[in-house]
Automatic annotation (TrEMBL):
EC number of the protein: 1.-.-.-
One Pfam family linked to the record: ABM
Domain ABM: 2-100
Alphabetical list of SUPFAM superfamilies matching this protein: Dimeric alpha+beta barrel
UniProt name for this protein: Antibiotic biosynthesis monooxygenase
Gene Ontology molecular function: any one: monooxygenase activity
UniProt keyword list: Monooxygenase, Oxidoreductase
Domain of life: Bacteria
Keyword Oxidoreductase belongs to the record: yes
Source organism per UniProt: Acinetobacter sichuanensis
GO cellular component, one term: cytosol
InterPro entries: ABM_dom, AI-2_Isomerase_LsrG, Dimeric_a/b-barrel
PROSITE patterns, A to Z: ABM (PS51725)
Length: 106
């Protein structure tokens, strides 16, 4: 099982972040129905007071679980992901992807 963390950096301004969130709202049910997808979740900074928390108002984090690299690659090539990228291209500055796997099996 692969765990993907996509850190999406949007342009400054709530309108850009909102547009990206709306685009994810549209595609999430389709992504969750894809073969090999075991989870797809949009995460935002919690609005809590903790001096050890690093917040960035222009970052959206996607947490994804994929059965294998093959399924993840197929996901990235789907028409809905291509449409998503075109829809938000003017709102997203950068995307940082981490592909992880569990380090301890307890």
């Amino acid at each position: 099982m692969l765990i993907v963390i996509a850190e999406i950096h949007t342009r400054e301004g709530i309108e850009h972040k909102s547009k990206v969130i709306d685009a994810f709202r549209k595609i999430t049910p389709t992504v969750l129905a894809e073969s090999g997808c075991h989870g797809y979740e949009l995460l935002l900074d919690a609005q809590v007071e903790a001096d050890f928390q690093h917040k960035n108002p222009n970052v959206i984090t996607m947490l994804e679980y994929w059965e294998s690299m093959q399924y993840l690659q197929t996901h990235l090539e789907t028409a809905h992901m291509q449409a998503y990228q075109a829809e938000v291209q003017d709102d997203v500055l950068e995307v940082k992807i981490r592909i992880l796997e569990k380090g301890l099996m307890l």
